[in-house]
């Protein structure tokens, strides 16, 4: 039997706010445990939550960037469950009126466009963080409530994804949009972006979906992709043996690379959702929507298309440049400053700058070589030659000095004085009579050798084009 995989993804993104969703406590990551708490986020009796306007606005912004229909008003609901990281025994979330519904994200997979539906976008509060001791004989767990009450955006897709590649592309595109819009820092290593994947198999061609399994607490895109591969094989084995795939919630065990059953799938009624009585509804009028729309920057897909049209670079290059907004800004800044072709600038950024940034695990905003400095280097490149320009670039990265000052200091300007080069060429021919003769007899790579020898003598500074001409002229003359 051939199966087709059907997948949906729930993404949790911590919002970029200074304070928590319902109190003034800081959201700063990495502080001493339990130093950023108050009676509200600790869930003490008698306290009242107050909505953080910035968090609400960021959610609205995200919902608009994800092409959602915006609800006329937003209510909040209590989702009741008991867990040590949830001091109130309920989470304030949205169940009946989500901020955004019916949106979509366009992705590109293997050159093909595909639209992934967004079922809803809603705002909720984070739980605290349980810390389990590493030693297996410890009989306690610790809890840090610094995270409790941090605003969290949940983005739920339709079950529209049909392959691992589509899932990967969706996650990257979504992350990129959230970063562009500035709603979340999306730092997966700090837990700012987390995923829950739903996976089921159906017979190929069939319209009937199979039972799905939901995998909770996936902290990286890599983990999502691994668990999908694992589930596809686990579920197809079950179906091959005519066994049922149980609707359940599973956990991914990173160490053993397996998913494990956690519980049977919970349903909405298990949570006893009801309207949160301590918060007033938020009315969202058209004016607010229109104003918010104006604050959304050009999104990656549009920027990518514009780069292709406006700068005549390839779609692939445009994709790389727009993957990170600050990189796209860097590129455009260079284009503005330079007379050179955008293609050349894009090559430098994609090949040389990205390599250095990756090595340093650094963002281009913190890179020592500014757009001005890169443009300056490209401007003087004709006087030093391409290969020396690469060395100068490395020197710039290491020292922060400008290209002209490095070229001056090291006296790297290219030799293109014909009479001076003529003399050197004469000497090289004299010292390498065999190669000169070979060339005369039609062995073309003897020329490469001779030019190489000359480059050695001139420490790479001879203009290779002029050299080749001089050699050809001299050697054809001498062989006649
Ligand atoms: P719940 O709130 O119980 O988690 P939802 O209906 O909100 O359930 O769906 C959660 C996720 O599961 C969504 O991302 C959705 O796209 C996905 N999903 C729904 N049905 C299927 C299915 N048959 N196979 C795979 N994913 C599914
Ligand atoms: Mg769910
Ligand atoms: Zn607090």
Q: How would you briefly describe this protein structure?
A:
The protein is of the alpha+beta class. The chain has helices at 53-65, 164-181, 221-240, 286-294, 300-311, 315-322, 325-337, 342-360, 371-384, 386-399, 403-410, 418-431, 433-440, 445-457, 464-479, and strands at residues 3-14, 69-70, 73-74, 77-80, 90-93, 100-109, 112-125, 129-131, 142-144, 151-157, 193-203, 213-218, 248-253, 258-264, 274-275, 282-283.
Query: What is the overall pLDDT average?
Result: 93
Low-confidence stretches: none
| E-strand count | 16
Q: Helix amount, in percent?
A: 40-55%
- Return the domain count: 3
Question: What's the helix count?
Answer: 15
Helix/strand structural class: alpha+beta
User: How far apart, in Å, are the first and last alpha carbons?
Assistant: 76 Å
Largest sheet: 9 strands, mixed
Strand order of the largest sheet: 2-6-7-10-1-11-12-13-14
Family: Belongs to the GatB/GatE family. GatB subfamily.
Protein name: Aspartyl/glutamyl-tRNA(Asn/Gln) amidotransferase subunit B
GO molecular function: asparaginyl-tRNA synthase (glutamine-hydrolyzing) activity; ATP binding; glutaminyl-tRNA synthase (glutamine-hydrolyzing) activity; transferase activity
Enzyme class: ligase
What can you see in these coordinates?
By secondary structure, this protein is α+β, with helices and mostly antiparallel strands. It folds into three domains: 3-291, no CATH class; 300-410, no CATH class; 418-478, Arc Repressor Mutant, subunit A, CATH 1.10.10.410. Helix content is 41%, strand content 20%. The protein contains 15 helices and 16 strands. It has helices at residues 53-65, 164-181, 221-240, 286-294, 300-311, 315-322, 325-337, 342-360, 371-384, 386-399, 403-410, 418-431, 433-440, 445-457, 464-479, and strands at 3-14, 69-70, 73-74, 77-80, 90-93, 100-109, 112-125, 129-131, 142-144, 151-157, 193-203, 213-218, 248-253, 258-264, 274-275, 282-283. The strands form four sheets. Strands 2-6-7-10-1-11-12-13-14 form a nine-stranded mixed β-sheet. The protein has a three-stranded antiparallel β-sheet with strand order 5-4-15, with no helix packed on it. Helix 12 (418-431) crosses helix 14 (445-457). The longest helix has 20 residues, at 221-240. The model has no long low-confidence stretch (mean pLDDT 93). The chain binds adenosine-5'-diphosphate, magnesium ion and zinc ion (ZN). Zinc ion is lined by residues 20, 23, 25, 37-38, 40-41, 149. Keywords: ATP-binding, Ligase, Nucleotide-binding, Protein biosynthesis, Transferase. InterPro entries: Asn/Gln-tRNA_amidoTrfase_suB/E, Asn/Gln-tRNA_Trfase_suB/E_cat, Asn/Gln_amidotransferase, Asn/Gln_tRNA_amidoTrase-B-like, GatB, GatB_C_1, GatB_Yqey_C_2, Gln-tRNA_amidoTrfase_suB_CS. Its EC number is 6.3.5.-.
